[in-house]
Write a structure and sequence with these properties.
Number of helices: 17
Helix content: over 70%
CATH architecture: Up-down Bundle
Strand content: under 5%
CATH class: Mainly Alpha
Radius of gyration: 21 Å
Structural class: mainly alpha
Shape: globular
Number of strands: 0
Distance between the termini: 36 Å
CATH topology: Growth Hormone, Chain: A
Largest sheet: none
């Protein structure tokens, strides 16, 4: 059957029912994941109007491309460095404590970014926002993984709570659409009613229940018990590169880097392609922004669908490596025609294609988050996850933004939007090839249980 060909088992037991407290934990974690993606993806939505407002920069110019690269990569670089430190602190101080402080950091940073009045201030607050997100996500994954001892229940919880990531993207695009359409009725910020500022400000709304509830939820029992018994070893980044873990550390970091490269270097550049499409060129500025918002909205529907589809499949996976390689092949087959053709020829084709691409990109992203807790022991779980997603993903993978934007300056095409699309298509071929080669070294976990 097809499921066997994909490395999926047909005989799995259903996860046991959640208690009330466990349901609350899952709800809070899901809201946190949604807020994380809101804060990351909102940049792709607000970048063009923010650069125009703060620096008078126009798409296609050298200055515009430079700041696009800076605003995507510098926050990712700083977030990666501090996120790795946050992973270490997660293993040292506990999961819940780090989660609470990370929420405060990125909530206050989102407020600051919405009120920035220079490009450098905007960049600074985007850096601190990304730091908060980079610390929060690995801590939340380790926390959830250790709260649910039953393997099938754990996989199901990690899969479905990450489904809420797609809601964060929908919230970001929905907020921008509302800000563009009704922003004139909101209180002025710096004497104006700019939609990009309101969109950043709306990101504070999900933070309120997180700040109020999370301090009262239980700590990871696995971490707490080992700490109380005095058997919790001190976390160490060096230990990630000792023989037992070195291969897994390097392979997972490179795979995550490839996924981030596709997300940041290709998918998040799609809004810059929309204004150059037939039927969009020549529209009024507000109509162009609405077209951009509609494409971004459909992409986030694809994100949500991909995360949920993975949650359905995760408890049935038999061969992790085969399943991941299948997803990567399907991703390559979808991405290349979308960015080599649809992104330059048809808004309707681009909308269909971006849904499929987002779905196929987010399934392997959820896969890696579910896979990593089964690689590292308790005292290294947060550190190992952070290395893969912060060093591999944010520091290495997001550099694809610089590659895409700089390559676009020398690509052929009728305008800047077409050149970005052609550049993205080349990045797709390069990154997916690297990911497919790397995935051949991925090891299937030795047990359903988390390493002690």
């Amino acid at each position: 059957m097809l499921t066997h060909g994909l490395g999926i088992s047909e005989s799995t037991k259903a996860p046991i029912r959640l208690t009330g407290v466990q349901s609350l934990i899952c709800g809070v974690a899901a809201l946190g994941f949604a807020f994380d993606l809101y804060e990351l993806l909102v940049l792709a939505v607000v970048l063009r109007p923010a650069l125009s407002s703060l620096g008078g920069l126009q798409p296609g110019t050298a200055g515009f491309n430079l700041w696009v690269g800076l605003l995507f990569y510098v926050p990712a670089l700083t977030g990666g460095a501090f996120g790795l430190l946050g992973g270490y602190l997660t293993d040292f101080f506990g999961r819940r404590r780090v989660l609470v402080w990370s929420i405060m950091i990125y909530a206050l940073s989102a407020l600051g970014a919405s009120h920035a009045n220079t490009l450098f201030a905007f960049l600074l607050f985007r850096c601190t926002t990304t730091i908060g997100v980079a610390v929060e996500y690995p801590a939340a994954i380790a926390w959830l993984a250790e709260l649910f001892a039953n393997p099938k229940q754990r996989e199901s919880v990690l899969g479905y709570t990450q489904g809420a990531v797609g809601l964060g993207g929908l919230m970001a695009t929905g907020a921008y659409y509302l800000a563009v359409t009704y922003g004139g009725h909101f209180p002025a910020i710096h004497g104006g009613h700019e939609a990009w500022r309101y969109t950043l400000l709306f990101g504070l709304i999900p933070a309120i229940p997180l700040v109020l509830i999370r301090p009262f939820l239980p700590e990871s029992p696995t971490w707490r018990q080992k700490k109380a018994r005095g058997t919790l070893q001190r976390p160490s980044i060096v230990e990630l590169f000792r023989p037992a873990l070195k291969r897994s550390t390097l392979v997972t970091a490179l795979l995550v880097a490839c996924l981030y490269a596709i997300g940041f270097g290709v998918v998040q550049q799609t809004p810059h392609m929309v204004p150059g499409l037939p039927g969009v060129r020549g529209l009024a500025a507000r109509q162009v922004e609405q077209a951009v918002g509609s494409v971004q909205f459909i992409a986030e529907v694809g994100t949500f669908a991909g995360r949920l589809l993975f949650a359905v499949l995760i408890v049935r996976i038999a061969s992790h490596r085969r399943f991941l390689r299948t997803l990567l092949v399907l991703g390559l087959l979808a991405f290349f025609p979308v960015y080599s053709y649809a992104a330059t020829h048809s808004l309707a084709l681009l909308k269909f294609g971006i849904f499929l691409c987002a779905l196929l990109m987010n399934m392997p992203m959820s896969f890696m988050w579910s896979y990593l807790p089964r690689v590292y022991p308790t005292h290294l779980r947060g550190t190992g996850e952070s290395f893969a997603f912060n060093v591999g993903g944010r520091m290495l993978g997001t550099s694809a933004v610089v590659l895409t934007t700089q390559l676009a300056t020398v690509m052929p095409g009728a305008g800047p939007a077409t050149r970005v699309a052609h550049s993205a298509a080349i990045v797709v071929l390069l990154v997916y090839t690297i990911a497919l080669v790397t995935s051949s070294w991925l090891r299937d976990p030795e047990s359903d249980q988390l390493p002690d």
